[in-house]
Amino acid sequence: MSFTTSNELIARAGKIVVLPRKYWTFEFSTRSGSRHSNLLLFVAGLTDNICSVGYLPPLAEELDTIGWSTAQIMASSAGSGFGLVSLASDVQQISEVVSYFRDQGFNKIVLMGHSTGCQDCLAYQTPVLPSSKAADRAKLDGYILQAPVSDAEAISQELSQDLIDESIEVAKQLYTSESPLAIVPLKYSKNMFGSIPITALRWLALFQPRGMDDFFSTYLTEQDLQQTFANLNTSSLFLMSGADQFVPTTVDKHALLARWKQIAPVEHWSDMSTVISNATHSLNADKSDPPTADLIAIVKLYLQSL
């Protein structure tokens, strides 16, 4: 779900900014060399690092033309760190980064999540996390959720159901008999994540049905979705990828999107939400490629509408 980006490309694209509490972001360069008054703050998915989501650099370049700066937050979950943390830590760090940028003078700030970053977007604005209240988090002016997928359903494309069930039972045993931070055996995680360590807590959050990260599965009931989609508190744009390789082919993406819309507050659901035809999970870096061009065009229109 990621690729290595050369240091030369990163140097051309922007600069690393270290924040007061040792959080850091990657800010994309603008043509003028100065920040704009509005900011798109990007949070990527599992295993992703700086610019590993291919469409982000061309998106930042296009947003520069409409007066929006772009920055990618590098939370402690970035790269190989996701297995040792949680959505709660992501949300806390995002809130502190947003507060920092508010203090820097930005007017509108929109959070764009890719893949597991979409869970961050929902967790940030809804009461699903017991550790803090949504009202206590730094205010955002909008959310963009690109490629929301169910990890609990995606794993079925990597492991047999017997092995999935076994891994969940092992994680439960580790959680209760040793520690929530005990590491799940690589036997279960290596096919998807190689040698990245994953705690029992995170494994259950990602892959146990109705785990802490389970927001987008097709089996979730209306009662389940009331905890997330019914609690959207700010304008939210959902962009599903029509050819997402991490969504089972049996899933009707249009029907799923329509179901979420039905539950969400009408005033906080962006009518620009759609399934981008032929788009893969992360699209690509060629802004002339039709799915990437469509994504960029929709994001620009959405930001201009706020």
UniProtKB/TrEMBL annotation:
It comes from the Eukaryota. Signal peptide: none annotated. This is AB hydrolase-1 domain-containing protein. The lineage of its organism: Eukaryota, Fungi, Dikarya, Ascomycota, Saccharomycotina.
